[in-house]
Amino acid sequence: MSTEATERIYTINLGKVLLSPNNQRAKRAINMIREFAIKHMKSENIKIEEEISHLVWARGIRHPPRKIRVKITKDDGNVIVSKYQEEKKAEETKSEKKSDDKKKSDKSKKEEKKVEEKKEDKKEKVEKKAEEKKESKTEEKPKKEEKKAEEKAVEEKKVKSEKKTKKE
């Protein structure tokens, strides 16, 4: 027997889980993952990591995922099913992460500035509208008074013209 560990990456289709009753789907998904590992690694000793279980149960018992990407490792008859993580993400160096963080912080600062500018513009518009309303109210009062005075003058003229017509 070889003592060398074999490692394979699979995408397991869990679509048939939907054929089972609502309240048993996540359980059935875990069993399907176990059956898949037994079939492909030809070993009965299967261990499913907690991450996989959390991934399947994340949306509850009724709505497990349709597909799941796993890394299956076989070592001396023991088979471990773990969550697959892309190599690019695992190999990313700290310097790359730092540069990404700087870029993100620069972008977030720019976005924050834009949001603040928009808020300031809105405040200015609201203030202008408020000032315009105040001005229009103050202008309306004299206009109303002028209208009343004009109306009184028109009435007085009518009264005078009526008196003249009566005299004649």
TrEMBL record:
Pfam families for this protein: Ribosomal_L31e (PF01198)
Protein's GO biological process: cytoplasmic translation
Ranges for region Disordered: 73-168
MF (Gene Ontology): structural constituent of ribosome
Tree of life domain: Archaea
Biased composition annotated in UniProt, kind: Basic and acidic residues: 84-159
Key words of the record: Ribonucleoprotein, Ribosomal protein
Protein family per UniProt: Belongs to the eukaryotic ribosomal protein eL31 family.
HAMAP family: Ribosomal_eL31
Descriptive protein name: Large ribosomal subunit protein eL31
Lineage, uppermost ranks: Archaea, Nitrososphaerota, Nitrososphaeria, Nitrosotaleales, Nitrosotaleaceae
